């Protein structure tokens, strides 16, 4: 079977950052592969290594900069990648449904039997894309999967869904399916030097909306980011000043007052 | 088309707290829209749940008695049927693990704009709906304007006061035909037993990704020993296999309420905070002055744990 993995490049704010307009200044963001997608890639590559998946294709919606991230997915073992971008996305806050428009078109083209995506994107944290995609393309799905046993012959994925409070739901999902992958599902590998070298030769198909038979109107977002600001802290925390020794000394005092270490 | 539909949540025979928070949020939104508040309760002992959900401000409760536990196929079909009946402007669901398993499908099927993990909202007839939510690991807050006059929101738990008291809602059984589910729940498993129960500890030293490497755990173990505290952690430490699952604090781990909670190299992600915000005294040691953990801390040291922790150990030796 073919496995499609959605892979997002996410920005992480530096300790000191400025907000420019409605986003953090790009010079104050470190870009990286979304943590949850790292686990999804690993799951797909393990399926390939087990002889269950014939091909692992990574797909991203992102500007040229995102090639670095998708290259990382290739270095870890994805066979090839599709990067979708269009001027229409520039400067917008894409809603779930417009991303699903894109992924649906890619699914039509690639015809995967399994789509793996992350539980959430670390930066925007919607936690919605995988399940919305499943609904659109008529696959079944499971969200927040932290254990996966794929039985290709029976056509099912046996998964654990990690609920709140240390309870897991054991569920059997019919294939084709979309699973949203939770961290801890596996141990994501580091890209090897050999992997990184091989990744240079793997294909990243740069694709725009027209290539997918879509128009900018299809992906018009219903959401607009109108403001971004640092949250007002209503904390009355005592910030302990001084060098490490002084700070530790003051904290020790506080802790002793609370009866700690007595 | 100015009503609000709230979808409640229960698990293994109990309504979850977030259901009552949703009633408060739902009432607020219904007032802003000038409509009624409808509550959907799906699967399980719906009659008992409906009685419990009948709190002041609720106008009508729709009880859909299909199945026992959560099943996304049933939930999606039920919400679709209720939306058909009620024609609401807004559908509100919890931003819970099960919420993540059906709300995006509902929004997609009904072609509603979706905003997830919402902290608050404002509505007025001229400007429509604007919601507040966080981004970048809670380092920033944003306002998001939603186009159109219908929408689906998933609400973060713990942001609204749960509705209390007894109301006078009409309770109505609803029959729906749900298609056969392609995702069948086979059972549940409780994880994370083991040697210690971190929920019993009076003092917790809790370690996060700031520790960097597994070898460095020794440092926080020494601190826990020196303080007579128990060692707990954030999720990545458990994901990496450095500590067993029973040490994890948070939404998918344990909820703890010790006298003193010392967060070392933990950013304070919402799913972590959900498990420890009830601690009496919270101490945070973190290099990043903007780390959200400082917003809920009582005492904070902005500093490198590799400098501070050894000094703190020395203080107690
Ligand atoms: C459905 C779901 C459920 C989840 N459940 C849980 C849960 O139960 N528990 C949980 O914890 N998380 C949970 N998470 C994950 C959560 O979103 C965060 O990813 C996680 O809490 C981050 O852990 P952290 O703070 O250790 O790591 P990070 O967010 O990476 O933070 C590390 C911190 O260490 C600081 N730091 C770095 N170096 C140093 C140094 N030398 N000295 C001092 N400070 C330093 C950094 O400034 C940073 O603030 C869940 C996520 C999802 C989607
Ligand atoms: N722009 C994107 N490119 C590729 N994958 C994405 C993108 N946005 C979301 N995803 C996928 O959807 C998952 C959930 O993201 P979200 O619903 O935005 O929190 C992520 O872990 C990714 O796998």
Automatic annotation (TrEMBL), chain A:
A Pfam family reported for this protein in Swiss-Prot or TrEMBL:
ETF
The protein's UniProt keywords, in alphabetical order, are: Electron transport, Transport
For molecular function, the Gene Ontology terms on record are: electron transfer activity
Which positions, given as ranges, span the membrane? Answer: none
> Could you name the domain of life of the organism this protein comes from?
Archaea
Annotated ranges, domain Electron transfer flavoprotein alpha/beta-subunit N-terminal: 21-216
Q: InterPro entries, alphabetically? A: ETF_a/b_N (IPR014730), ETF_b (IPR012255), ETF_beta_N (IPR033948), Rossmann-like_a/b/a_fold (IPR014729)
Q: Which family does it belong to?
A: Belongs to the ETF beta-subunit/FixA family.
- For this entry, the protein name equals Electron transfer flavoprotein beta subunit
Which organism's genome codes for this protein?
A: Halorubrum aquaticum
Q: What are the leading ranks of the lineage?
A: Archaea, Methanobacteriati, Methanobacteriota, Stenosarchaea group, Halobacteria
UniProtKB/TrEMBL annotation, chain B:
CDD domains found in the cross-reference section: ETF_alpha (cd01715)
Which UniProt keywords are listed?
A: FAD, Flavoprotein
Q: Name one Pfam family in it.
A: ETF
What is the top-level taxon of the source organism? Answer: Archaea
* GO-annotated molecular function: electron transfer activity; flavin adenine dinucleotide binding
Q: Name one GO biological process term.
A: fatty acid beta-oxidation using acyl-CoA dehydrogenase
Domain named Electron transfer flavoprotein alpha/beta-subunit N-terminal is located at: 4-185
Instruction: Identify the stretch annotated as signal peptide in this record.
Output: none
Similarity comment: Belongs to the ETF alpha-subunit/FixB family.
Protein name in UniProt: Electron transfer flavoprotein alpha subunit apoprotein
Which lineage do the record's taxonomy fields give for this organism? Archaea, Methanobacteriati, Methanobacteriota, Stenosarchaea group, Halobacteria
């Amino acid at each position: 079977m073919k496995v499609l993995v959605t892979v997002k490049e996410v920005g992480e704010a530096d300790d000191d950052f400025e907000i420019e307009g409605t986003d953090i200044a790009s010079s104050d963001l470190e870009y990286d592969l979304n943590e949850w997608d790292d686990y999804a890639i690993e799951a797909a590559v393990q399926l390939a290594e087990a002889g269950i998946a014939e091909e692992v294709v990574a797909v991203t919606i992102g500007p040229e900069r995102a090639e670095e991230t998708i290259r990382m997915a290739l270095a870890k073992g994805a066979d090839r990648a599709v990067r979708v971008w269009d001027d229409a996305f520039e400067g917008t806050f894409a809603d779930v449904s417009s991303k699903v428009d894109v992924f649906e078109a890619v699914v039509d083209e690639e015809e995967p039997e399994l789509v793996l995506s992350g539980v959430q994107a670390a930066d925007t944290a919607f936690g919605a894309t995988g399940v919305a995609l499943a609904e659109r393309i008529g696959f079944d799905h499971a969200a927040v999967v932290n254990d996966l046993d794929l039985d290709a012959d029976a056509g099912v994925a046996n998964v654990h869904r990690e609920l709140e409070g240390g309870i897991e739901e054991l569920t059997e999902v019919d294939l084709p399916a979309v699973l949203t992958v939770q961290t801890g599902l596996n141990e994501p590998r580091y890209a090897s030097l050999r992997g990184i070298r091989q990744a240079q030769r793997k294909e990243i198909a740069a694709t725009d909306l027209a290539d997918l038979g879509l128009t900018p109107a299809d992906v018009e977002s219903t959401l607009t980011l109108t403001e971004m600001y640092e949250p007002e802290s209503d904390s009355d925390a005592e910030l302990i000043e001084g060098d490490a020794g002084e700070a530790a000394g003051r904290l020790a005092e506080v802790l002793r007052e609370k009866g700690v270490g007595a | 088309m100015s009503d609000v539909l709230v979808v409640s949540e229960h698990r293994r025979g109990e309504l979850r707290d977030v259901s009552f928070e949703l009633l408060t949020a739902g009432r607020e939104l219904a007032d802003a829209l000038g409509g009624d508040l409808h509550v959907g309760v799906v699967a399980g002992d719906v009659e008992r749940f409906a009685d419990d959900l009948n709190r002041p401000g609720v106008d009508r409760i729709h009880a859909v008695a299909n199945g026992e536990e959560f099943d996304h196929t049933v939930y999606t079909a039920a919400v679709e049927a209720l939306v058909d009946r009620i024609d609401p402007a807004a559908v509100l669901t919890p931003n819970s693990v099960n919420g993540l398993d059906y709300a995006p499908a509902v929004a997609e099927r009904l072609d509603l704009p979706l905003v997830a993990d919402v902290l608050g909202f404002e509505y007025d007839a001229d400007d429509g709906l604007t919601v507040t939510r966080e981004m970048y690991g809670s380092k920033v807050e944003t306002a998001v304007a939603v186009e159109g006059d219908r929408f689906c929101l998933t609400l973060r738990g713990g942001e609204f006061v749960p509705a209390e008291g007894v109301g006078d809602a009409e309770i109505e059984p609803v029959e729906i035909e749900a298609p056969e589910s392609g995702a069948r729940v086979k059972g549940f498993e409780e994880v994370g037993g083991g040697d210690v129960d971190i929920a019993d500890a009076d003092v917790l030293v809790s370690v996060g990704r700031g520790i960097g490497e597994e070898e460095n755990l020794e440092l926080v173990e020494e601190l826990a020993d020196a303080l007579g505290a128990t060692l707990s952690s954030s999720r990545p430490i458990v994901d990496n296999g450095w500590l067993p699952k029973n040490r994890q604090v948070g939404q998918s781990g344990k909820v703890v309420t010790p006298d003193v909670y010392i967060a070392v190299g933990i950013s304070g992600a919402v799913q972590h905070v959900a498990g420890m915000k009830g601690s009496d005294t919270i101490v945070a040691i973190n290099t990043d002055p903007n780390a959200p953990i400082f917003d809920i801390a009582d005492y904070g040291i902005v500093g490198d744990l590799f400098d501070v922790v050894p000094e703190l150990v020395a203080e107690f030796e």
